[in-house]
Structures are given as structure tokens and as C-alpha cells.
């Protein structure tokens, strides 16, 4: 009962993380609350991968919903044996948790790439990725951020939001990984106990 309650809490935690990922990703489309840059396609290319909206957001909401159903459905009988049903449900839970790792991992990687690349902004030479060749060193040197003339404060905007996305998706990876490990231990321990009983 305790492990089921704990699993339900972990699955439930994925929901607010997914909702926040959607919100943060949407904000990336509107630097300083302005819509003109999105409509004229003057945003960093990594925001168009929909990592926070689709993968770490909507897909993770689906994963969380399925995991919650699997945790709370005590009457499901997918085969004749009760142990068989429990093993099947545990395996299904592990599969969806693994999908959660894949979805949130995708968001984590794309957000990290977007953070290191830097924003697409207008400089004295026109619209470009002003810090693309710095290998992320611009993140610790705020004195060069003034190279981006437009949108205003776009460097800070991108750094903060991409960092939040990394943190949110990183937490999702951890939660799903914990679930995979716990579900795998249930299957292995369950099989081990059955073998012991047969040998006796």
C-alpha cells in the first residue's frame, strides 16, 4: 500500500512539472511579452522544437495520467492469475515511465542546446546568433550581452527560461527513472519469490 501511494505521488508530481513546462515554453515565443518576433520568425530555432509544449508538456501529461490509472486501478484483471495481472500492470507502468524518460530527456537536451547556442537577435551586423561561436562562454560574461540590441533583454529572457525548462525536464527524468527502478525491482523480486516457492 505504501509503495502504491508513493508511486501515485511521484506520478502526480509529473502533472505540475508538465504544466509549468508548457507555460515556460510558451513564454519563449514572446520576449518581453511581444508577439511580433514570433510572427516574423525572429526567435532562436530551438523554440520551434516544441520541447516544453509537446514532449515535456502534453506527452508527459498523458504519461502521468496513464501511470496514475495503473497505480489506482486495483480491480484490473488482464489474465487469470492475480500475480500475472500485477506483473503485467507493473511492466506496463515501467514502459510508460521509460517513455517519460525519453520525452523529458528530449526536452532536456534541446533546452540545453538552446541555452548554449544563445538567442537569435539583432546586432550591429543584423539579425544573427551573436554568441553561437562562444561555446556557451557568454553565459558567464554578461558584459557582452549588450551585443544583442533587439529584442530588449533577450539574453536574460532565454537564459532564465531555458534554464527553467532544463530544471523541470531534469526533475521529470529523475521521477520517471525512480519509477522505472521501483517497477523493475517489483518484477525481479516477484519472480524471485515465485522461484523460491516452486523449489520448496
Automatic annotation (TrEMBL):
The keyword Transmembrane helix applies. Coiled coil: none annotated. It is found in: Membrane. Keywords: Membrane, Transmembrane, Transmembrane helix. InterPro entries: L6_membrane (IPR008661). The chain crosses the membrane at residues 12-31, 46-70, 91-116, 159-178. Its main location: membrane. It holds the Pfam family L6_membrane. It is a multi-pass membrane protein. Belongs to the L6 tetraspanin family. This is Transmembrane 4 L six family member 18. It comes from Felis catus (Cat).
Amino acid at each position: 500500500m505504501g509503495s502504491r501511494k508513493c508511486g501515485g505521488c511521484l506520478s502526480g508530481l509529473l502533472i505540475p512539472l508538465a504544466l509549468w513546462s508548457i507555460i515556460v515554453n510558451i513564454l519563449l515565443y514572446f520576449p518581453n511579452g511581444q508577439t511580433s518576433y514570433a510572427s516574423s520568425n525572429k526567435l532562436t530555432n530551438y523554440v520551434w522544437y516544441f520541447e516544453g509544449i509537446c514532449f515535456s508538456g502534453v506527452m508527459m501529461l498523458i504519461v502521468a495520467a496513464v501511470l496514475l490509472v495503473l497505480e489506482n486501478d486495483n480491480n484490473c484483471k488482464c489474465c487469470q492469475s492475480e500475480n500475472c495481472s500485477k506483473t503485467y500492470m507493473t511492466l506496463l507502468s515501467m514502459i510508460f515511465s521509460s517513455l517519460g524518460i525519453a520525452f523529458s530527456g528530449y526536452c532536456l537536451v534541446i533546452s540545453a542546446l538552446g541555452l548554449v547556442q544563445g538567442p537569435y537577435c539583432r546586432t550591429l551586423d543584423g539579425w544573427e546568433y551573436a554568441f553561437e561561436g562562444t561555446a556557451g562562454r557568454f553565459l558567464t560574461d554578461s558584459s557582452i550581452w549588450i551585443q544583442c540590441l533587439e529584442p530588449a533583454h533577450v539574453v536574460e529572457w532565454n537564459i532564465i527560461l531555458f534554464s527553467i525548462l532544463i530544471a523541470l525536464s531534469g526533475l521529470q527524468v529523475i521521477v520517471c527513472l525512480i519509477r522505472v527502478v521501483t517497477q523493475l525491482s517489483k518484477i525481479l523480486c516477484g519472480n524471485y519469490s515465485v522461484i523460491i516457492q516452486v523449489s520448496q
